Each structure stands twice: as structure tokens, then as C-alpha cells.
Amino acid sequence: MTSKKRKRIRWRRVFSALLLIGIFLVGLFNTVQYIENGIKAFNKPLKNVEAKHSFQGEKNKIDSINVLLLGSDTRGEKQSRTDTIMVAHYNPKTNKVMLISLMRDMYVSIPEHGQQKLNAAYTYGGPELLRKTIKLNLGLNIHHYAIVDFKGFQKAVDILAPNGIQVDIPYEMSDGIGMTLEKGQQQLHGEELLGYVRFRQDRLSDFGRVQRQQEVITKLKDEAVSIESVGKLPELLKLLNTYVDTDIDTSTLLTIGKDLLTNKTQDIQTLRIPEDGSFTNERYEDIGEVLEVDLDENRRTLNEFLDS
């Protein structure tokens, strides 16, 4: 049974990565079109978002780019945790956009800190130590990072989808989200969609939450690439500058955006690591409940996914 501590909702940092997807993908897919159509956001050039962390990922990798997507709620703390860890992958040769969700409770080796949960790497050393940890355990190179404040999520959803996002709610959701979402097909706006994604009290626990994250991200991407989203870019860029800490430079963003606009992209492909059947649930003193993972098997799964 999930402990009381694990049931506590830390929604302000859990779901902020969803904001990034809404803003980041809109920037990728629509920035160049926006400029080429002669619409000048704020009547001045786009500015880079100033990175607040030192990050040693290889830069200017246009052949294949991996972006570490994180949600964080520091609340004035020097060391914070991240409950949402994703990697967005774009390959311009295949025009594929992929999203990899990494379970935060995976039991991994963290450089100079021993065996810990994956999300502890961010607490100890920010996105750079998390990058090293992912490379060490899964062999995945990360080129850029983006950390997003949760506060813009509702605004981004309501800008992208003013009529809401349709989801099929399997049963009533209310515990821990400050609202009641009824069973069945529902059209959810920003605040409600946040409640839908952050609900944890289901039979799948964190795994169910990750499934809903990927569902919502895919639907936000569909809204982002619609023709109606072009005129929304100024508002989204304001959110980008306010709520996103990233080392992605504007030139890289524009290069990817132009590729995506001039080539037909496919639906977002998603993967969760660890995959089913490759882990066991364990409990260790001073750490709590963890996922004991077959890392070799998951490295193979990850490589096959990216090469598909």
C-alpha cells in the first residue's frame, strides 16, 4: 500500500513540465511561420531565455536533439526536487518527435552520491547532475535542459485551447486535487486539466499519472500545430520568458521550427522507462519505496525506441 507520505500531492512541481510542452512545441512548430508571415511579436526580435544553471550537454546538435524537461517548485529552498522528468527527442532526418517519461522513483547510481532515487540527482546537483545520472544509467545523451514553473500551465492551456481539451475520465476524480471531475467524456480547461493530470489516487499510482501526462501533451501538441495557434505566439512567448529556465538558444529553436514547418511531422511517439516487466517494487531504509530496474534491458528498449 502506498504510504501516506507518497500520497501527498506536490502538484506545483509535478506538472510544470506540461507547461513546457505547450510552450516549447508551439515555439518549435510556429515561430518561423509567425516571423515569415510578418507578424512581429512585441515589435522587437525574439530574445534568448537566460539559462540559470550550468549545463554541459553538447550544444548545436541539429542531427538529433534531446531536451531534458523538468518541473520544479523551489518555494525558496536552496535544494528542490523534481517529480516530473521527461526527455523530448527530435530527429530532423525522420521528422519524428518523441517523448520519454522517466519514473522518478527508479533506483539508480548518482555520481558521487551512490544509489538513490532518480529525482534525488536534481536535488543534489540540479539539471547537470541529473544529465550525468541519466547518461550513466541509461546511456542517453542530453543536449539541453528546460525547467518550468507550474504557474503558467493553466494559462498556457487556456491560450492554446480556449475551448478546452477533451479527455475520457475513467471514474470520478476528486481526492487531493481540490475539485471533482466526473466520469465520462469531459472538455477540460486549464485548471481542470491540471487536476486531471495530477490525480494520483488510482489503481495505477504514479504510472497512471504518467499515462495522463503523455495523453495531455499529445493533445496540446495537436493544438499547438493548428493554424489558429499562429496568432497566439506573442502571449505564449510572454509565458516562455516568465516561466521557463532553459539553455536552448533562439537560433536552435528557429532551426528546428523551420525543419518541422517544411516537413510533415508525425504524431508524438511516447515511451515510459522502466518498461513493464523490467522492474520490481522494493523498499529500502532511509530511501523508502523504489523501483529496482533492469537497466540493461531498459537501455536496449530506449535505443530501439529512438532508432525506430
In short:
With 308 residues, the protein is α+β, with helices and mostly antiparallel strands.
Any chance you could write out the topology, listing elements then pairs?
Elements: H1 4-7, H2 11-14, H3 16-36, E1 65-71, E2 84-91, E3 96-102, E4 107-110, E5 114-117, H4 120-138, E6 144-148, H5 153-160, E7 165-169, E8 184-188, H6 190-198, H7 205-224, H8 233-243, E9 244-246, H9 250-262, E10 269-273, E11 279-284, E12 288-293, H10 295-307
Helix pairs in contact: 3-5, 3-7, 3-8, 3-9, 5-6, 6-7
What is the residue-mean pLDDT, rounded to a whole number?
A: 75
Question: In the residues, how many domains can be counted?
Answer: 1
Strand tally, please? 12
Q: Largest sheet at a glance?
A: 6 strands, mixed
SSE topology string:
HHHEEEEEHEHEEHHHEHEEEH
Percent helix range? 25-40%
Sheet with the most strands: spatial strand order: 9-6-1-2-3-10
End-to-end Cα distance:
37 Å
Protein architecture, described:
The chain has 308 residues and is α+β, with helices and mostly antiparallel strands. The chain has one domain: Nucleotidyltransferase, domain 5. It contains 10 helices and 12 strands. It has helices at 4-7, 11-14, 16-36, 120-138, 153-160, 190-198, 205-224, 233-243, 250-262, 295-307, and strands spanning 65-71, 84-91, 96-102, 107-110, 114-117, 144-148, 165-169, 184-188, 244-246, 269-273, 279-284, 288-293. It has a 6-stranded mixed β-sheet. Strands 4-5 form a two-stranded antiparallel ribbon. It has a two-stranded antiparallel ribbon with strand order 7-8. Helix 3 crosses helix 8. The longest helix is centred in the N-terminal third of the chain and has 21 residues, at 16-36. The radius of gyration is 19 Å and the shape is globular. The protein starts with a helix and ends with a helix. Mean pLDDT is 75; it is low at 1-23, 25-46 and 73-78.
